[in-house]
Write a structure and sequence with these properties.
133 residues; mainly alpha; 2 domains; flat
């Protein structure tokens, strides 16, 4: 029988809670904005970040307008449905297979994953571990 690991259990609880929140948030954005549904593998990180921030801001504006019972602007062009050419993002001009393979290898590096997970577990334990005791 495995030993009880309070740090691992706290990490798992926090990770599950956060994952549910993130999945719910992305689900809302994907249902509202077609661009969030599309694969972003070939876009650069800066563009992805700007797109996501823009979608979050637009979503919050839509929610705020609906909460007050009015809509000052027509948001239908930003919502899911048929996408217009203006909503498409240009992909990188040139993509090198070697770059993609290197990025994929780095993302799948199990040693790096284990180090990052251990660091995150320790950070969560330092921040929240004494609350439950």
């Amino acid at each position: 029988m495995a030993d009880f690991d309070p740090r691992g259990e706290l990490f798992a609880e926090r990770q599950e809670s956060t994952r549910k929140d993130v999945e719910r948030a992305f689900g809302v954005l994907q249902s509202r904005f077609t661009i969030v549904k599309n694969p972003a593998v070939l876009w650069d990180k800066e563009k992805i970040g700007k797109i996501m921030r823009t979608c979050v801001i637009l979503h919050n504006m839509i929610v705020e307008n609906k909460r007050h019972g009015y809509a000052q602007i027509d948001t239908s062009e930003f919502e899911s449905g048929e996408s217009s050419r203006s909503s498409k993002v240009k992909m990188r001009e040139s993509i090198h297979v070697g770059d993609m393979l290197g990025i994929r290898r780095e993302v799948r590096d199990t040693e790096k994953h284990d180090r990052l997970k251990a660091d995150l577990m320790e950070n969560i334990w330092q921040k929240f571990g004494s609350e439950d005791e």
